[in-house]
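Worked example 3. Consider a protein that binds (3S)-3,7-diaminoheptanoic acid.
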Amino acid sequence: MSEPQPIYLSDYRPPAYRVTRTELTFDLDPAATRVKARLHVERHPEHEAGVPLELDGEQLNLKAIAIDGQALGEDEYAVGEAGMVVHRVPQAFLLDTEVEVAPDANTALSGLYRSSGMYCTQCEAEGFRRITFYPDRPDVMATFSTTVIGDAATLPVLLSNGNPVERGTLPGGRHFVTWEDPHPKPSYLFALVAGDLEKVEDRFTTMSGREVTLQIWVEEENLDKTDHAMASLQRAMAWDEQAYGREYDLDLFMIVAVNDFNMGAMENKGLNIFNSAAVLTHPHTATDAAFQRVEGIVAHEYFHNWSGNRVTCRDWFQLSLKEGFTVFRDQCFSADTNSAPVKRIEDVSFFRTAQFAEDAGPTAHPVRPDHYIEIGNFYTLTIYEKGAEIVRMLSNLVGEEAFRRGSDLYFSRFDGQAVTIEDFVDCMAEASGEDLGQFLRWYSQAGTPEIDAHGEYDYANAEYRLVLRQRTPATPGQAEKQALHIPVRLGLVGTKSGRDLPLTLDGEALGTDAVIHLREDEQEFLFTEVSEAPVPSLARGFSAPVKLNFPYGREDLAFLQAHDSDGFNRWDAGQRLALLALDDLIAAHRNGVEKVMDPRVVEAFRAVLAARIDDKAVLAQMLTLPSEAYIAEQQPLVDVDAIHAARTFVKQSLTMALRDDFLRLYEENRSEVPYAPEPEQIAARSLKNVALSYLMAIEDEAGLEFAQAQFAADHNMTDVRHALTLLVHGSRGDIADPALKAFGEKWAHDPLVMDQWFSLQVTRPQADVLDRVKFLMAHPAFSLKNPNRVRALIGAFANQNPVNFHRADGAGYRLLADTVIELNRLNPEIAARLITPLTRWARFDEARQELMKAELERIRAEELSPNVYEVVEKALA
Ligand code: B3K
Ligand code: ZN
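Given these inputs, the predicted complex is written out as structure tokens:
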């Protein structure tokens, strides 16, 4: 096998031929599905006559090919591994092809495959070429007509994009439905579903009065798990009208739940296909977090109808054009629907843990990469979440109103087109009059910028001098970095009054909360008329995706935690304070010195508990310590055992000091009210369960009793799963084992609950867990062919159990590498994703580095898919 070669953004050329209309007929069969395609093709006027026609195609068995009804001779075209070339074609013509594909042999879950007996497709980014020969690139947009033929008894439901226009029966017990999608679309948005499915139906009337039928298609046993997705969809449709003026554009919108799916969901035009984990919910099977995730993903895919489908990407380097923007849109939607500060805290916690780690590792890439080997490897936190942070910065820079004018302009100017990130940013610049030239560097420069800040108060002159210095560390292929345009939202909190002081900069009064613009490597900001010594509150609301270092003392942080008017920074001050204390304890653990709890952290917690914070969800966040992964992210060298020991010690110390408060919080927030996934209930449950985590940290009688009772009460999955996790992660096997067994037996029939059953076992910190992982891999319910199960077992072990994955003997690494090697053959996309924790070897001690690299080498010695090849090469470069 020759080495896979990179594709470069700078090589982009518009297509020589476009397809204006695509007519497909599928005759479904598990081993030999026939796909007939009639393409209406035209040469682009800018290209000369005689340019050969190039079509993508992979693993297709060509049965027939004709142009304008004339079958082609064998010398008139050439078929290779990646596609075909037709040497001579007219200026405009009809191309007919017929191919055979094998859905049952498709374990990569890209193209047409079968899942639990139903046929479904996944075409983004390059799956359509596994269905038929086609210019499979997003800048080729056609209207589609799709006829699906299948066995009437086993496949009563036949779906595709758009509206059904014809249906009928055929000889041999077969039937067909023809679908027509009037909106030109790229091939990656094509979808087909066929199976024995049931639907739940509802309606939505758009702002201009269009009646839209909404359908969610599921297996019969899941009919009772669709309410929340349907309600979320209706809320999302209304929100997009109100927030962005965007209306739905077909008479029918369908969602289908599929058990085997590589990602969360897919925004195919009019026919969204969802991982069942991202759409099905029931109080007894899904946690609050799952309910919120479903709401966010349903909204995200729906929002793509405009940001992605009506206006799409010119090429895959522009992926963040649709993904960053759409994540920003779904974040705002969820913030409006739930607790806005908590949504921001959750998003930023995740971002600073996982995206920062990506940006600091060997696969770091810009939000708009300039080359890739396998685009499937670029559905990353950088493209999605950092892309969203960039759009958020844009919105803050130009202001909400100009942002809306900019987005209106973008949607109207580029409707029906495939465009670039510049096109989007230009609309924002045009609508606001801002110069966004320097800002564009955010898209091309990888790595997390760091701002080193320091400040001085001049009492005599009532001035505060703030100095900000920015630098972005080198990343692979980008040694030199340029200064970015970084918006820093800030306040100065008076140490006497505890209030935000008025800000005067260069003679201009800015109010008490303002955005300053850092554009140079180093810049000084002199605030005048500062009447008392302040503590600065910087990058409020995480105003830019950067690391901001300020030499805060622990008293400063306790002060900000108590007084900052910005909820996000109040929370963050508490996190920073805890991190300082954790640092000391990590060092103590490493040096074999006795650990001593910093009383200031205890007092800060006591103050939070006494502050009577109304929003219980915010309070729960303020009482939550930084995760082990986030602590690791702050350490120069990661010592998983020291981190675990230090964090456990802090939890136990806090419980011993504040036990009565936690008991009270637990009691006060217990409720018998029927479950609803609404913000107040979710907030109370999260607070109660945080309290329970503390009580269980010392496993005293009350904690064990509460956990057991909460599990036994079986009120809702949030409470049951939390209690069970605490028990299983604790030391009382006599209590945990029977509970785990009962849970497993009760839910053996429900794959989404079983995923949780697998995960919570393999994330326990006890030393014997690797044996448990191996044992569970042999469980009859485990399969490498189901991505959810792989993530629930192997993914959870490797990413959420640092102490055991990083065992000093390397057995955790070996297990992951073995799995990657097997999955490389079955499902390259999932295999490549699974490697991530091994790519982070540089963060660990030398012995572990050697072990991790040895496993990467062992993977590299295999015959690799391009996906795995690209990741491993980068990790070992
Ligand atoms: N656009 C899809 C991602 C599909 C990726 C497949 N490799 C889901 C989403 O972002 O909405
Ligand atoms: Zn998306």
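Take a moment to read the result before moving on. Residues 450-541 form a domain with the Immunoglobulin-like fold (CATH 2.60.40.1840). The chain has a mean pLDDT of 98.
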